[in-house]
Amino acid sequence: KDVNVAAISGYFSQGFGVAIVEGLKKAEKDLGVKVKLVDTGNRALDYEEQFNNLAKGGEYDIVFVMGWELVDALQKTAEAYPNTKFVFIDGVLDSKHVVYANFAQNEGSFLAGALAGLMAEKGSDIDGLGDGKAIGFVGGRDIPVIRDFMVGYEQGAKTAAPDVRLDAVFAGTFDDPAKGSELTMALYGQGSDIVYNVAGPTGEGVLQASAAAGKYSIGVDVNQCNVAPGHVMASMLKNANVAVFDLVKDVVDGKTLEPGSVHTANLKTGGVELLLCPDVADKIPADVKAKLEELKADIASGKIKVATTTQ
Amino acid sequence: MSVTPATPLAIELKSITKRFGAFVANEDVNLAVESGKIHAIIGENGAGKTTLMNVLFGLLQPDEGEIWIDGEKKSLPNPAAAIAAGIGMVHQHFKLVPSLTVAENVFLGMEIRKGGLIDHAAQIKKTAELSKQFGLQVDPNERVGLLSVGIEQRIEILKVLVRGARIIILDEPTAVLTPQESRELFQTLRGFVAQGMTVIFISHHLEEVMEVSDTVSVLRLGKNVASRPTAELTKSDLVQLMVGRLVSFDRLPRTPTIGKTVLEVEDLWCRDERQLQALRGVSFGVKAGEIVGIAGVAGNGQTELAEVLSGLRPSSHGSLKLNGRTITGLSARDIRAAGVGHVPGDRLVRGVDRNASISMNLLMGRQDQSPWSTHGIINRRYLLEQTQALIKRFDIRTRGPESPAKSLSGGNIQKIVLAREFTGSADCLLIDQPTRGVDIGAQEQIHGEIMRQRDAGKAILLISVQLDELIRLADRILVMFGGTIMGEISGDRVDEEEIGMLMAGVVPEPRPNQVGAA
Amino acid sequence: MEVLERLLNISLVIATIRTTAPILLVALGGSFTTKAGIFNIGLEGQMLVGAFFAVIGTIATGSPWLGVLCGVAAALTLALIFALLVVSFKANEVVVGLALNILAGGLTVSLMKAIFGTRGSIFGHGLVGLPALKLPNVKDLGWFGQMISGYTPLVYAAFILVPVLILFYNRSRLGLYIRVVGEKPEAAEALGISITRIRYISSLLCGLLAGLAGAHLALGYTTMFTENMSSGRGFMAVAILIFSNGDPLKILLGCLLFGFSDALSLRLQTLGISSYLVLAVPYLVALIGLFALSYRSRPRLIQETLASMGRVLSVKSNTIKPATATDASKP
Amino acid sequence: MSDRFDSLLGQGLAILFALGLGALVILTVDESPMKVLVTLLNGAFGSPERIAGTLLQTTPILICGIAACISFRGGLFNIGIEGQLFMGGFWATWVGFSFNLPPILHMLLAMSAAVIAGMAWIAIPAFFRARYKTNEVVSTILANYVAVLITSYLTINIFKRSGGQSETPPIFESAYLPELFSFSRLNWGLIIGLALAIGVYLFFTRTSRGYAVTEMGANPKFAEYGGIDIRKQVFLVLIASGAVGGLAGGVEALGVHHRFMEGFAPGFGFDGVIAALLANGNPIGTIFTALFFGALRSGSLLLEVDTTASREIITVIQALIILAVSAQITIRRKASDSTAGERRWKF
Ligand SMILES: Nc1ncnc2c1ncn2[C@@H]1O[C@H](COP(=O)(O)OP(=O)(O)OP(=O)(O)O)[C@@H](O)[C@H]1O
Ligand SMILES: Nc1ncnc2c1ncn2[C@@H]1O[C@H](COP(=O)(O)OP(=O)(O)OP(=O)(O)O)[C@@H](O)[C@H]1O
Ligand SMILES: [Mg+2]
Ligand SMILES: [Mg+2]
């Protein structure tokens, strides 16, 4: 029997969405499923009709949903069409009709914060860093999902390097790399030498600014090391491609996805990780690397609880 | 119809026909203009004078006919071709750019350039030279926006001269000038013909035509009905040729029924758009059944006076009284309600909404009054009836009450305004330039209406730049200059020379009989 | 104090110059149409296609300079459509401008999907930006040298264009004609200056600069294209055009004010004020500027002094002429 | 009559021309134009639910369009309807979740809050336009950005509900604007919009105040001369326009979303302005142009699911249609207005 997979989101073009698409493309190739991507755009009025259009025919076995603004329409539709499996990516809701694939971006961001903090403490010992003793964060819009990254990042920095100051700013948009770059320049100007971007395309501007200024940045969602080679220190990966592929595989293999079940991808499962960019890795002192491993283990074991804003 | 040429013809138009859709604006017009002469063209409004000149200047293309210039057949697809053929045109409405200097305006379109950039110094120098050569005094450095109409006209003429025109067309050039300015203009025109140039000149002022032209052509309903040497004609011949009947221009008879003072103006001051002082202490009164004329060169505060009186412009000092009641500082609406009607000078801007129907134009100002509207709902039937009645009474030439105002000719548009303002309950009427650009036939009708209003006991303030109009209608004439009233002259004993001097700001030797005799 | 030091330093000046440049370029483009009497609200869209095709061109040819050319060509195409509809067909310029903005948004995304299979942003694919110019010998100039060196070429172009345009409007024939056509089209018509032609030229010149602004955004300011990356800069430019009346010097001042409030507000965020409020600052500055300027035009004293000074110095006194439905009744 | 027929025919041809161009665009992205058209029609009118969906999209465009019509009629250009809509939507929601009141009263109070918010949001630009002639096109556009940011701030920093959504708590059911059918979110907003269109049309054509506004829009100097208080009238017209803009937000909040969130209703304000412009400022005509835009919007939703074409293609086609029609409207006008001077944009 053919398996039909659909995914609906407004973010297929941004880091995390790209990873989801990657996973689905792989499933299409390796598992022979049919994949349909539905781009929601940003008009709240449309969401419900879009879900209806997807669910009504009943031809989709599994529908991935990403984006918190879709939650209301999702819950309504999931209730109305219990035969369609909806998988909500990147969060957990009250609804028992939906399957959840949750990513602990706060945990990954914790490590990113720890890395940035530890490096900032080293200051001018390291090539390209000053003694500003500050680290930066550039968010897209100031919304709960982005804050989830931020609180993790902040906690990580405070835990690993309590004296380092965090300057966090938001571009107010995911579409303006120029603004991202300008914000980053401002952060650099105020003493931050490492800036973590969680801002979609705006964030590309952050990474490019790090190259232009000869400083450092941290990538997000997918491997962004090659956007500004030598200046992206690490990338906080949310391996949605793996998670999505596995869920599709489960369906193809005939396993039932239990409604209400939560599939968590975190540091422990490896669904979320901090990738040190190879071209910068040798600049990172061994003690920093060791400390990161230690923190990672503590989080995985539950010794450190990372705060979150999306529950 | 054409005159046998004694001298070579500068221009010969042969069987020119110009149609606008089904409407024929010029029909089979032949016109011969001799070189070195002043040739006047007259005719009622809409007779096709401007259209014909536009054809000659390449602005319009004739549907039929030929244009010969200096004995050569020419096709004039655009004004540039006409300019190249030595024709220049001073339009009825000036086309100057206010933010540019005189010199820039004169050389606009044919700038002097050095190294690709405009050479302002050279343009200024040349303008000064030219202005000297032809006796057209201007300051080449001045911004045009700050200049008076008379000077603007000089600039327009300079523009034509600098392009090397030998044949100059002037479309109603004196409509906005003082008698002195007109006379200066005629002097200039005579200077031109003395230098071998040719002048074509359109006017509604028959005295001027008689005074200055060598030849006259009369257009009626798009046809050339006569072209003759001026000397062979009298004024009444001209009128008869134009309208096909006799029209009188004499001072209209007075009926001495002057009543109590209706409008009282005391020490009125105000500023204009540029915040410059436009009125400087104006005082006068208008009685019921009296017409008080305001003479003066356009731009000496007359328009501002009318606007202050009608509440459209705030006064900075002074008081206004209507029937003894103070109306100073009231809004236009309240002043209207108090009983002031206003025929504005710029009828197309203030007087009507050109795109609205005649009936909608007649509604303005009374839309809140019963029976025009009840409980805020417009009474459409009543409006239609009234419109039809007014169209009839005022002889408004139109296809119907729903035709847009812009489909009417200038004179008929003016009649809409009069119909509206004269049928209200106003005790006092401010009438600004009632016949500007209106032909003689319509002028007569309008004058008749004004007299009827006076006879009905209204107090009328009549502002006009046309002295003959004031002389014809007014009981007293106040002359304005620079925002003040220079003097007062009784309508019965008018000395044009004296008014002219007052208009120019010169107080003549007191002649006891004339000043202050009301 | 420390806070002030963190906010106000040379890097703020540099950031102001950077944030000013793209708005300045597009606003200077708009000055052509404004002066020619066309209200061009389509700057946003022209900038966006400029940015998109600059990127496409660079990827296709490998040269950012050829990319700039492509971007300009695309913006010119949009400007040509604008001129065709607004000038030749006399369509309402607000409708056409808004529609072209919509078209630009939809077209760039559709093409992005068609070419790259994704929407969002384009980078990589061999995309290279314009080189930053390091001026020689600026080291000796201290902070000033720091301030004037190291930008991409179009930043210099934007600022150099200001005096060039001043000269253009005052001393060149085309500039003069553009002003005349905007201020008094009947005068131009009577002198045989083709209004249509001048308005076409103005629209195209506007497209040229808007395209450069877009190219700068994609190849100078950043090195990528993002959906809707003009992000309201075109609208900002329109606001500046209205209160500057299209005068290059006033445009520069307006853009600097914008650029400064933008750069400053980005820095204010680090003080912990909500980003939503901080991001509103440039718009509020614009609004307050707009209101303040129109309020200022009121007091008589200032008006009168300006008017008389204008006459004495014969400086262009900038009275906005109320456009009336008809000028036919001028006495 | 035949004039009107001619103009309809002309518009039809213009739309066909734009659709033809659109078909070419669709071909370039490798999809069959026929399939796209069928999908569009199916998506917009394929079933009662879809027709209702189309009307649901039409409602805010229509109400925003009427807001625009009001300002156009007075010769003013309120392009800030988007901002008024956001403000109206937010404050209606605020009343909706902050108070617990009896059903109809609650809804009416929330709706009034929307209207007042819309008026308040345009009040300052309106004041400056009326008093100092400050260009309202620019001031209202700029105010849009501020409105969106402020409502986002209030939603996320002050009134956010718990959980991951960037939205306010839901409003109480007592504040709901009732739905018309059980199978759709289509609600009384549509009826309000239609009634408003007819009411505004009658107001402008039949009443003396409407006449005053109309003349002010057509020739302000004439209106001023006729005793109409321009300043007051300008202010009132803009305020009325803002009120209707705010109302549109109230309808969306109380009738459809029942809460306020980021991306509440982007683009409706602009679509409304364009719908009104295409209808030449006529509220009755705006009903049809709004329906047309609503159908395009709703039809394009199915496009994503059933074809490989994206919604942006529809945006492109919509823009092409607007361009074609805008040119077409004025080709006809050209015959009568030949002077160059008349074609200047009025600030
Ligand atoms: N677009 C148009 N289509 C048809 N006719 C027009 C148009 N515009 C103007 N007209 C005609 O032009 C005339 C108005 O032109 P204009 O104002 O020059 O009149 P006029 O010749 O000055 O008349 P008057 O003697 O009343 O001043 C009207 O007779 C009208 O029918
Ligand atoms: N552009 C036009 N379109 C249609 N009809 C026109 C146009 N211009 C002029 N006409 C018609 O041609 C007639 C002649 O107009 P023209 O302007 O030549 O009259 P005129 O003799 O100059 O009148 P006036 O003394 O008022 O200046 C007008 O009555 C009008 O009906
Ligand atoms: Mg004429
Ligand atoms: Mg006339």
Automatic annotation (TrEMBL), chain B:
Stored InterPro entries: AAA+_ATPase, ABC_carbohydrate_import_ATPase, ABC_transporter-like_ATP-bd, ABC_transporter-like_CS, P-loop_NTPase
One Pfam family it belongs to: ABC_tran
TM helices/strands, residue ranges: none
The ABC transporter domain, residue ranges: 11-246, 263-507
SMART domains cross-referenced by the UniProt entry: AAA (SM00382)
Domain of life assignment: Bacteria
GO molecular function ontology, one term from the record: ATP binding
Keyword vocabulary terms for this entry: ATP-binding, Nucleotide-binding
Family in the record: Belongs to the ABC transporter superfamily.
Name of the protein this chain belongs to: ABC transporter ATP-binding protein
Taxonomic source organism: Kaistia terrae
Automatic annotation (TrEMBL), chain C:
Keywords: Cell membrane, Membrane, Transmembrane, Transmembrane helix
InterPro entries, A to Z: ABC_transp_permease
Localization (cell): Cell membrane
Pfam families: BPD_transp_2
Primary subcellular site in the record, as a coarse category: membrane
Entry coiled-coil feature ranges: none
Segments passing through the bilayer: 6-26, 38-59, 65-87, 94-116, 150-169, 200-222, 234-261, 273-293
Keyword Hydrolase attached: no
Keyword Iron (UniProt): no
Protein topology in the membrane: Multi-pass membrane protein
PANTHER family cross-referenced by the UniProt entry: GUANOSINE ABC TRANSPORTER PERMEASE PROTEIN NUPQ, SUGAR ABC TRANSPORTER INTEGRAL MEMBRANE PROTEIN-RELATED
Protein name in UniProt: ABC transporter permease
Organism: Kaistia terrae
UniProtKB/TrEMBL annotation, chain D:
Pfam short name (any one): BPD_transp_2
InterPro entries documented for this protein: ABC_transp_permease (IPR001851)
Highest taxon above the source species: Bacteria
Entry keywords, A to Z: Cell membrane, Membrane, Transmembrane, Transmembrane helix
Protein name: ABC transporter permease
Membrane topology designation: Multi-pass membrane protein
Keyword check for Membrane: yes
Transmembrane segments: 12-30, 50-72, 84-101, 107-128, 140-159, 186-204, 268-293, 313-331
Subcellular location(s) of the protein: Cell membrane
